[in-house]
Amino acid sequence: MAPMKELEDTASMGFFRKLLLYTKLSGPGWIQAAVTLGGGTLVGGLYLGVIGGYQFLWLQPLAMLCGIIMLSAISYVTLSKEKFEDRPFELSKKHVSPFLAWGWLIATVVANVVFCSAQFALGADAVQGNLGASNVNPYVITSIFFVLSLFLIWLYSGEGKASKVIDGVIKILVAIIVLCFMGVVATLMIKGAVQWKALFSGFIPDFSALFHPVDSYSAYLNETGSFQPFWENYIATNQRNIIIGAFGTAVGINMTFLLPYSLKKKKWSKSHRELSRYDLILGLLIPFILAASCLIISTASQFHAKKDAVINETAYNNVLDKRLTAQFPDFKNFDSTKKEAIRLAAPQVDKDLSVMLAKRSAKDLATALVPFLGNWSQIIFGIGILAMALSTMLVHMMMNGFAISEALGQPGKQKLFLLGAAIPALSGLFSPLIWAGTVKAALVVPASVIATTLLPIAYLIFLLLMNSKKALGVELPKNRVLINILMGLATGIAFFASFWALQGKYQSANVYEHGFGLFGIVGLTFLTIFGVISFIRKERS
């Protein structure tokens, strides 16, 4: 527990002294940063820079601000109730809806198990692709991750100094991520590879990008003739999907479940409420914005609207083949010789757009930066991405430990916590199998739909709890107008993004995505209505 005398003295401290103290005492915010600075943020940042350039720099800070608003409410509720039986999960069951509370927990477990394996795969890819271990069997790498992560989680599950080790490990890993990406951008700036005017204007929100391609593509689109509608729809659809993805990866459903338990693990209470808000800003908001922005800047500088950028053949063909399928409906059934001949004969403007819009990997970006960073390029990115994978897999395991022990009615009990933490680690151990072919497809679509559907529900739960006299009693904030405006805005954006993402699944030609999209839309609507009605009844009873 933070020394009470230090916290009592903050009232007489100047801003910078207080900031220094709160930085020293911070912790849960860094754990939140560790999970959000993972594979989702990496992929989102890479493609945001590719498809939108600097014009999407505003997106992830805005998404994180919405998340900070809701996480601040979660910390307020958590720290205002000091009895064991008044944990947020129990408050949700008692004062909102047991159905919503269990949906929140189950979605957390599903997200942890599926996406923890993705972090193992990301880490293995960094070791093989960026750090020169291409000949090492991936199961050897994931086995090392498995043993190391379980050891660190075992330390965290204990008491005393040993449990604090993981706090330091996570802070170091997050710092490595941020410093690696900041170092890349600093080098690009020194060497004149960054467009300063476009960079600064990119932090000004431009919501028109939700509906049509950014201006960088206009000259090329005008040359595509009868296929201009195809390209406009392709770019707009991908922009929409990546915008929604960026909001989803900024603060995920499992992060909302984790925060209360990491606060309680630190033994924080009412006197720590201000500290908890600073902690979210210092440990989560600032590192996230720095890392995500630097990733977009570096990607945009090398790939956006550049027809001669570094590209791998598979990613290029994936885009070009979609355009050719619009012209030749049976294109996918042609033999490889005929396909290649048609690709070669495609108009140059279609080839150029395919280069510009192809998705890049971290290895592609590292290769593109060799002229600026030299042979250190792959190593710098490899270290940054490995730190991303390690920190995020640890926190996925931590979250699952809390969720499983909570589901079994003994939150935080060491044996149950370790059992819950081991489940996503096992999925990570077998990630070379899971994140390949049909297994990946079978897991990711339903998992992403469940997580997307339940994120706004988690937000709704805490919006209602912050207005519940029965839940908070005398701790109910007196002047809640501004609080409700901010929380209502964040919750509304989450609902909008969720419905939009689910609509995209529903409109998919893939029968499974269509079915899951329909299930998500109906489920989200039902849960929202049911939750609000249940809350009103409980408040009136």
List keywords for this structure.
mainly alpha, Hydantoin permease, globular, 541 residues, 26 helices
Task: Explain this structure.
The protein is mainly α and 541 residues long. It has a domain at 24-310 and 360-441: Hydantoin permease (Orthogonal Bundle). The chain has 26 helices and no strands. Helix 2 (15-25) crosses helix 14. It is globular, with a radius of gyration of 24 Å. The two termini are 37 Å apart. The mean pLDDT is 85.
DSSP helix fraction: over 70%
CATH architecture of the domain at 24-310 and 360-441: Orthogonal Bundle
Please identify which CATH superfamily of the domain at 24-310 and 360-441 we are dealing with: Hydantoin permease
Based on Cα principal axes, name the global outline. Answer: globular
Task: Give, in order, the helices and strands.
Answer: HHHHHHHHHHHHHHHHHHHHHHHHHH
Residue ranges: pLDDT <50 for 5 or more in a row? none
Average the pLDDT over all residues and give the rounded result. Answer: 85
Cα(first) to Cα(last) distance is: 37 Å
Largest sheet: none
The share of residues in extended strands comes to under 5%
In CATH, the topology of the domain at 24-310 and 360-441 is named Hydantoin permease
What would you report as the Rg, rounded to the nearest angstrom? 24 Å
Structural class: mainly alpha
Per DSSP E runs of 2 or more residues, the count of β-strands stands at: 0
CATH class assignment of the domain at 24-310 and 360-441: Mainly Alpha
Give the number of helices.
Answer: 26
